[in-house]
Amino acid sequence: MFSLTACGGGQDSSSGSDRPSVADIESQITKSSGDQVTEDQSACLAKTYYESDLSDEAVRLLVEAEDVSKISPEDLSKADQKASKELYEPLVKCLTPAE
């Protein structure tokens, strides 16, 4: 679904960071995935990205991209590439139907 993935920021919006909000991330996921993900799945994905170790810049790249499928590892720093790999399992878990 997304080629951009990773883990860790935190939710302290008063820190003055430029990290997009969970709502901003969720909006982009919904826009780019259409009806391929449910509301619960997109909320889970957004929270996972928000709390990830991805830099604010990488999360902004995800939110501002016209087409997230065109984001490549070369667009990310080495640290973000590593963080992206760590997101694979948590993101898959968001997409797995609850039993």
What structural keywords apply?
single chain, 99 residues, mainly alpha, 5 helices, 51% helix, globular, disordered N terminus
Describe this structure in words.
Helix 1 crosses helix 2 and helix 2 runs antiparallel to helix 5. It is built from five helices and no strands. The radius of gyration is 12 Å and the shape is globular. The protein is mainly alpha-helical. The protein has helices at residues 22-33, 39-50, 56-64, 78-86, 88-95.
Order of helices and strands: HHHHH
Give the DSSP E fraction (strand runs of 2 or more residues).
under 5%
The overall pLDDT average reads 83
Shape: globular
- Straight-line N-to-C gap: 22 Å
Helical element count? 5
Structural class estimated from helices and strands: mainly alpha
What's the main sheet like?
Answer: none
Stretches where pLDDT falls below 50 for ≥5 residues?
1-16
E-strand count:
0
Radius of gyration: 12 Å
Helix content: 40-55%
List the helices and strands and how they pair.
Elements: H1 22-33, H2 39-50, H3 56-64, H4 78-86, H5 88-95
Summary, kept brief:
The chain has 99 residues and is mainly alpha-helical. It contains five helices and no strands.
